[in-house]
Amino acid sequence: MAKKNVRVRKVPVALVTGTTKAGVWLGSIRVSGFTILVMSLTLLGVGILAPQLKILIEQRQVVADLQAEAAQKQADLTELEKQRARWDDPAYVRAQARDRLYYVMPGEISYLVINDTQVEDLKREKATAELQNTQTDWVTGLLKSFLIAGLGTPTPDQVQPVQ
Questions:
Q1: What is the separation of C-alpha 123 from the centre of its chain, rounded to a whole number of angstroms?
Q2: pLDDT digits 0-9 by tens, 39-50
Q3: For the chain, what is the mean pLDDT?
Q4: Under 8 Å CB-to-CB from 20, ≥6 apart: which residues?
Q5: What is the spatial distance between Cα 155 and Cα 148, in angstroms, rounded to a whole number?
Q6: Are 104 and 98 a contacting pair, CB within 8 Å?
Q7: Does residue 23 have a pLDDT over 80?
Q8: How far apart are CA 102 and CA 114, in angstroms?
Q9: CA–CA gap between residue 69 and residue 81 (Å, rounded)
Q10: 3-state secondary structure the chain
Q11: In the predicted model, what is the mean pLDDT of residues 58-87?
Q12: Is 14 exposed, middle or buried (0-12, 13-18, 19+ CB in 10 A)?
């Protein structure tokens, strides 16, 4: 008898058993006691170290804040030392006494001017969104001004300074 070539089609296990692909995949995972031991030790290590790491990070943040505060205080101290050094200069003390306390040196006369006049506010037109055409040609005006200034002959009154 002759053998016929029969093709056998493989049917997925999920179709035969009625489960999903994920269920088949999960069923194929083999979990040993060593795997469970390593996973439990890893979870235990994370559980123990997480609070300690949180404390470490918080302490580093506090140290960084204190260092920034110390740097700011050092900058303030440097500025105050500069001001103190300025007050050691007699000319600076004299200038401050003039400006702040209105002191004068012997023989000088001090004038205090009080500006008691009222300046009226300028009346300004409100801006509009409309475009306006101007009646002047600024390019021609600029060219005329340039030519008159360069080619014109000044009169004696224009040359002589006004006294």
A1: 39
A2: 999 999 989 989
A3: 82
A4: 14
A5: 13
A6: yes
A7: no
A8: 14
A9: 18
A10: CCCCCCCCCCCCHHHHHCCCHHHHHHHHCCCCHHHHHHHHHHHHHHHHHHHHHHHHHHHHHHHHHHHHHHHHHHHHHHHHHHHHHHHCCHHHHHHHHHHHHCCCCCCCCCCCCCCCCCCCCCCCCCCCCCCCCCCCCHHHHHHHHHHHHHHCCCCHHHHCCCC
A11: 95
A12: middle
Q: Which CA distances in Å does 23 have to 12, 33, 35, 128? A: 13, 22, 20, 73
Dihedral angle over CA of 20, 25, 26, 29, nearest 10: 160
Residue 158 main-chain phi, psi, to 5 deg = -75, -30
4, pLDDT greater than 60: yes
Tell me the two tokens of residue 125. Answer: 């037109």
| Each residue's pLDDT tens digit, 81-99 | 999 999 999 999 999 998 8
Let me know the angle formed at the C-alpha of 56 by 54 and 61, rounded to the nearest 5 degrees: 95
The type of residue at 104 is V
Q: What angle do CA 66, 68, 73 make, to 5 degrees?
A: 90
| Residue 68 · residue 74 · CB < 8 Å | no
Write the pLDDT tens digit of every residue in 6-20: 666 665 555 556 667
